[in-house]
Amino acid sequence: MTSPEITRKSWLMVAALGLVWGSTFMVIEVALEGITPFWLAAGRIGFASLLMIVVWAAYGWRLFLEQDKQAWGTLATIGALSSAVPFMLLSWGQQYVTSGFAGVSMAAVALLVLPLAHFMVPGEQLTLRKALGFGMGFAGVVVLIGGQAFQSTGASLETAGRFACITAASCYALSSVLVRRLPAIDPIGLATVLLIVGAAIVIPSAWIIEGPPPLPSGKTLAILAVLGLLPTAAANLLRIFVIRSAGPTFMSLTNYQVPIWSVLLGYVILGEPLPASLLFALVLILAGVGLSQFGAIKRLFLT
């Protein structure tokens, strides 16, 4: 396993992921008007896996570039942790918690990656500067979302819902670290297999929990296609490229961008008001990124 290499391309890919995932929340809200939560997850993962199978076939079905029988078990684990399990946990948990708490939970992915990468990924050692930077970025997200993130909904299952959101964040963090630890592997094949595993879990789960799939309208089908193409298939492939080259810690910076893009796009497209805390939150997040990635930023401008 080579040491992480953060380049200009790495920064561009992370920025693109932040924008794509930040805009996904608006699309999901519209989709939920015509389909249930678990079938929404099943539809986007199912469509994305079929799309990636076609792409994978065009590239010759390549997967492992060096033989490692134990890696198949790791692939199955990553497939469950990177999409199916957290999708279902969030779909269930968000019924009982505030949307702000769910947002803070996703921002916590970056903090959860730090100790995992320190012990499991060579070249990703935890330093005081890195910890302070990620903590500052997390504080910026909390400021942006506001106090409502920690308000109680009064739901009887609120504690369980919060636990489900935190567990989903832990799944994303662990899957990122495991992707980095895989042996030499083709990224297109890897992205496809992970989506196939996710679809194999979430589709029967949706059927058991919500019954047969509803008959969606043309509008809902079009939205599912968009969700499957961009924030699921394309973003999953891009995520793998970032993790395999720049490492899971750098990849986790995406989680600090998502709420910023969500707020800005809500203002531009939906006319939602900008929170008064936006500027302060943005300063905290950018300062945290700058502190945690000081070395990478320095190399970026010196090369």
TrEMBL record:
Q: Which SUPFAM superfamilies match?
A: Multidrug resistance efflux transporter EmrE
Q: Give the family this protein belongs to, as stated in its UniProt record.
A: Belongs to the EamA transporter family.
**Assigned keywords, A-Z:** Membrane, Transmembrane, Transmembrane helix
Q: Does the keyword Translocase apply?
A: no
Q: Where in the cell is it found?
A: Membrane
Q: Does the keyword Zinc-finger apply?
A: no
PANTHER family cross-referenced by the UniProt entry: EAMA DOMAIN-CONTAINING PROTEIN, INNER MEMBRANE TRANSPORTER
- How is this protein named in the record? DMT family transporter
Question: Domain of life here?
Answer: Bacteria
- Report the membrane topology from the UniProt record: Multi-pass membrane protein
Principal subcellular localization: membrane
Could you tell me which residue ranges the EamA domain spans?
12-145, 161-291
Listed InterPro entries: AA-Vitamin_Transporters, EamA_dom, EmrE-like
Q: One GO cellular component term, please give it.
A: membrane
- Which regions span the lipid bilayer? 12-32, 38-59, 71-90, 96-119, 131-149, 161-179, 188-209, 221-241, 253-270, 276-297
